[in-house]
Specification:
With 139 residues, the chain is α/β, with parallel strands linked by helices. The protein has a single domain, classed as Rossmann fold. Helix content is 37%, strand content 15%. The protein has 6 helices and 6 strands; from the N terminus they run βαβαβααβαβαβ. The strands form 2 sheets. A 4-stranded parallel sheet has the order 5-4-3-6, with helices on both faces. A two-stranded antiparallel ribbon has the order 1-2. Strand 4, helix 5 and strand 5 form a beta-alpha-beta unit. The longest helix is centred in the C-terminal third of the chain and has 15 residues. It is globular, with a radius of gyration of 15 Å.
C-alpha cells in the first residue's frame, strides 16, 4: 500500500486516492490564473494545520508579497516562521532591497541552481520540512 500525504484541498485528495504519494514530486501545470499558486500555498497551510512543516520557494514573487497573498486567505504564517515550522526561500530578489535583507533564506544568484539547492537543503534541515513548494518552475 502506498503511503499518502493529504493535501487538505477539498475534493483533490479523493480524486487522487487519498492524497499525494509520500516523498513524491508533483508538477502542477496550467495556464495563468488557473489556481496553481493558490493550490500550492493551501497545500503548505493545510500541512501546518496538521502539525507539519513546510517551505515556499519564491522564484517569481517577492517573499513579502507571498506572505500578503497568504494572509488574504487568512493563512497567516508569521507565527509558524517564528516557531521554525515554515520558511520562505527568497529566490526572487537576489538579496537586493531592505525587505530582502530580513529574509533568512536567500538565493543571491538567481541563475545558480547549485545555490538554490544548497539554500533549500539548509532550510529543509533547519525546519525538518515535510512539504516544499517551488513556485514556479516556468521561470
Amino acid at each position: 500500500m502506498v503511503e499518502r500525504v493529504k493535501t487538505g484541498v477539498l475534493g483533490f485528495d479523493e480524486i487522487v486516492g487519498g492524497g499525494i504519494p509520500k516523498r513524491n514530486v508533483v508538477l502542477l501545470s496550467g495556464g495563468p490564473g488557473t489556481g496553481k499558486s493558490i493550490f500550492s500555498i493551501q497545500f503548505l497551510w493545510n500541512g501546518l494545520q496538521m502539525k507539519g512543516s513546510g517551505i515556499y520557494v519564491a522564484l517569481e514573487e517577492h517573499p513579502v508579497q507571498v506572505r500578503i497573498n497568504m494572509r488574504g486567505f487568512r493563512w497567516g504564517v508569521r507565527q509558524y516562521e517564528l516557531e521554525g515550522k515554515f520558511a520562505v526561500i527568497d529566490a526572487f530578489t537576489a538579496g537586493v532591497g531592505e525587505a530582502a535583507k530580513r529574509e533568512k533564506y536567500v538565493v543571491r544568484d538567481p541563475d545558480s541552481v547549485e545555490e538554490l539547492v544548497d539554500v533549500l537543503r539548509t532550510a529543509i534541515n533547519d525546519i525538518s520540512a515535510e512539504r516544499v513548494v517551488v513556485d514556479s518552475v516556468s521561470t
